[in-house]
Each structure stands twice: as C-alpha cells, then as structure tokens.
Amino acid sequence: MHAFAVDGLPEIDAGDDLAALVAERADLTDGDVVCVASTVVSKAEGRTAALAEFTPGPRAEEIAARLADVTGEQKDPRFAQAVIEEATEVIMDAPFLLTETTCGHVGVNAGIDRSNTGGAELLLLPKRPAESAARIQAGLAADVGVVVTDTSGRPFRHGQRGVALGWAGLPAARDWRGETDRDGHELAVTVEAVVDELAATANLVSGEGDDGTPVVVVREFEFGDHDGSEQLFRAVDGDFVRQALRDWTFDGA
Ligand code: GDP
Ligand code: MN
Ligand code: MN
C-alpha cells in the first residue's frame, strides 16, 4: 500500500463540504481509504466553541481546585466544564482529565483541541464521528472507506499517534482468530485494529502543526481474506485497567 496527502485543501469552515473539497483535489479509486483528521471534520461541522459558553458547575470548580492543589496547575474551570459536557465519563480528574467521549474513545480532555481551531478558543470532537465518516463516504464517487482520525496520547509510552474515532466502508478490525501462525499454532486472541493502524499511517503523513494536510489517502491496502470485526472500544465491563483507574486517586507526584 502507499499513502499520500491530498494537497491544496483550504482552511475549513463551518458548512464546508469536505467530500467535495477532497474529490476536487484527489483522483480517488475504488478501494482507497480516505483518512480525515477530526480537526477538519469538526470545523466543517461547526464544532467550535468559546470558553464563555461554559458556566462551571460545582464539579468543574472542584476539578479545577483539586488540580491546583495537587499539581499547582491553574486550569480554567470553564475548560473543565467544557470537558465534562463533552465527556460521557470522567475516568480520572487529576493530574489530567481522562475521559470517555461519545463515540467510545478514551482520551485526555474529551479530545478538545486548542490548536488548529481556525481562531476559535476550543475545537470539540465531532459528535458522532462514524456518521461523519459515512457522510463523507456518501459524498465521494469512488467506492472508498473513510476513517476519521485524531492524534491521541497513550498510557505506558511517550508520544502521540493517530487513532480512529469513526469509520465507514471497512471493518474496524481484522479477526485472525482461528487462523494459524507459521508453526501451525492456531491464533486465539489476535484481533488487529486495522482502522487504528490506518489512522496512525495517516497521522504520520499529516503532521501536527501547520502542514495543512488533514486528508490522507491510503491506496492498495488489502484487508485480505479475514473475518471483520466492528469492535474497537472496550466495554467497561471487560476493561480491568479502566476499572482500576476508577478506584484510584492522584494525591500528588
Ligand atoms: P487532529 O490530529 O485531528 O487534532 O488535527 P491536527 O491539528 O493535528 O491537524 C492535522 C493536519 O491537518 C495538520 O497537517 C494541520 O496543519 C492540518 N489542518 C488542520 N486544520 C486544517 C484546515 O482547516 N485546513 C487545512 N488545509 N489543513 C488543516
Ligand atoms: Mn485533535
Ligand atoms: Mn494531529
């Protein structure tokens, strides 16, 4: 496979038709996977906000106070309120806000960005990124897959990389269970998160700063003859790391 950025995309504004803007600049082929940074999906969907729109409730004030207490960091309670409103669960409140967002993705600050916002104070994640991906897919003439991505940190390792928030036109994962390795052993647990791997590939090409390349086409990727799986986000029930975090409180470094 190979991956290339779609060049010449303008600054994206609310109401822009991303599919049309991409189609004008890329000669898409059936089987391509079009990876779109959530930043521009959010801008097109008008998901910008100002801090003044958020009135801090008691929980936001408490989070800001606790953070100042244990880390010395002054967090704007209005920002904490924005995160609370965007999150389906606040898993950790210090030393940073670890949240689950509406699509199931777990990340810091409910994925709210303060860079590449097009001048707005805050850029919120697309509300339903799978629907965003399906809409973009429907607007493209070729039979393509679409992955809406975001740059995200991860536990256990330094550095960020791209992850998938929503996708359309391809399964989330490639299920290797029941297939054999080179020694004839049957694979028992391997379900490969293909959309995350495509998102990481796209993120590598996109860059993080002012490159201006939010859309990356992955061409000739072959899903192969495997079962597909739609599961990407763990349910809380089977996620023991997340359960442990719920019971843990940060009390200073
Ligand atoms: P995120 O990973 O989805 O949070 O997005 P980033 O802020 O990291 O941006 C990803 C890529 O898209 C970078 O190359 C940015 O320069 C670019 N980008 C962000 N917004 C725009 C935009 O409105 N227009 C264009 N052409 N590029 C943008
Ligand atoms: Mn982001
Ligand atoms: Mn990024």
TrEMBL record:
Protein name per the record: Coenzyme F420:L-glutamate ligase
Source lineage: Archaea, Methanobacteriati, Methanobacteriota, Stenosarchaea group, Halobacteria
Pathway the protein takes part in: Cofactor biosynthesis; coenzyme F420 biosynthesis
Enzyme class name: ligase
Binding site for a divalent metal cation 1: 113, 150
Oligomer and partners: Homodimer.
Role description: Catalyzes the GTP-dependent successive addition of two or more gamma-linked L-glutamates to the L-lactyl phosphodiester of 7,8-didemethyl-8-hydroxy-5-deazariboflavin (F420-0) to form coenzyme F420-0-glutamyl-glutamate (F420-2) or polyglutamated F420 derivatives.
Family recorded in the similarity comment: Belongs to the CofE family.
Binding site for a divalent metal cation 2: 151, 208
Location of the Coenzyme F420:L-glutamate ligase-like domain: 9-220
Required cofactor names: Mg(2+); Mn(2+); K(+)
Record-level Gene Ontology MF annotations: coenzyme F420-0:L-glutamate ligase activity; coenzyme F420-1:gamma-L-glutamate ligase activity; GTP binding; metal ion binding
Residues annotated as binding GTP: 9-12, 38-39, 43, 116, 206-213
Gene: cofE
Keywords, sorted A to Z: GTP-binding, Ligase, Magnesium, Manganese, Metal-binding, Nucleotide-binding, Potassium
GO biological process: F420-0 metabolic process
Catalytic activity: oxidized coenzyme F420-0 + GTP + L-glutamate = oxidized coenzyme F420-1 + GDP + phosphate + H(+); oxidized coenzyme F420-1 + GTP + L-glutamate = oxidized coenzyme F420-2 + GDP + phosphate + H(+)
